[in-house]
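Quick one, T. Sequence first:
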Amino acid sequence: MSQHDFVIANQTANSARLDINSGLQALASNNSGDSEPSTTYANMWWYETDSNLLKIRNENDSAWINVAYVDQTNNVYSVLDETKLVNTSGAQTGLLGGQLQSAWNAGTSTTESLVSPAQIADAISTYFTANSIGYNQTWQYLSGSRTVNTAYRNTTSRPIQVMIQASSAGNIMVSQSGGTYVKIANGLGSPGAWRNMVTFIVPVNYYYKFTGSAEYWAELR
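Structure tokens:
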């Protein structure tokens, strides 16, 4: 461990030699010590021995910037968490660190960063599994509350599945806005035939209606 003010004062030749050697030793050891050097300079290196942190002085000579952690026990140089990845212009392109769990669950952040298997699994569970059709949904018998030729809207936060058993020819119609409808299926055939049963998925906020006659009506929601 060695630190120096890097000022060689007028003195005898022998003292000057010792002073110069002390300054060179401080440079060679990155000004290592438990406390910061008493005299600092812009862009100066300092290895803090009690925390094992390698630091550099900012250009205003007003604060230290942590650069790395040095694992002295295992002789390993370690990159610090939350280290930014930047291009040659200093613009951030990534992050060596963990982002908030909410950022992974939302899936909207574009910052490249480290991610653990647990975070991936939780994001899949939250963003995909929890929003998948059938997850925590139940089939509900709705024949008594549904009427043909009437538009119904999926006001839930998830897609729903509809099953209708038709007793006469009719069309399954869907609409995103409730205005223009698109026919996606026909309910055809005589009562009791398997082809009378029609099932389809209604996205969130979409409208749907059936124009024929129905024997059975249910929704998975």
